[in-house]
Amino acid sequence: MPQAPARLDISSPAFANGSTIPKRFTCSGQNVSPPLRFGGAPAKATALALLVQDSDADDFVHWAVFRIPPGTKGFEEGKVPSGVVQGKNGFGDQRWGGPCPPEGDKPHRYVFALYALDSQVESSGAISGHALARGTLTGRFGR
Fold first, then answer.
1. C-alpha distances out from residue 110 to 16, 121, 141, Å
2. CA–CA gap between residue 103 and residue 105 (Å, rounded)
3. 23 phi and psi, to 5 degrees?
4. Out of 83, 115, 117, 133, which residue is the most buried by the measure of CB atoms under 10 Å away?
5. Spans in the chain with pLDDT lower than 70
6. What is the pTM of this model?
7. Domains and CATH numbers, the chain
């Protein structure tokens, strides 16, 4: 996961940092993306990017969203703003792919990493050289 020199704010009204992601946002429920709240983007930011990865499954990508306008205050449940670009997730889809760890595994950790960037990027590999700030929110889920 790329690093950045400054800190951004990311949270969700659906779950607290370190707590369980509600079933409705997973493959065991409705598999809709959770509501998210953003803040603290530096003035120099030209875009935001969001990566959601399972840190207990080799950083499997559940969601990649690029070209988010820097003034965006968050996403509503199941929605992204018009004009953003959703990259392919580990399932091969260009959308949210909810947590879906193997049955019987201990709960996996899902890291929502929000980046403020100094240029527009459309791949997770390009984030490293352009990240001005980063914030993370971690949720857990097991089946």
1. 12, 22, 8
2. 6
3. -55, -35
4. 115
5. none
6. 0.95
7. 6-141 (3.90.280.10)
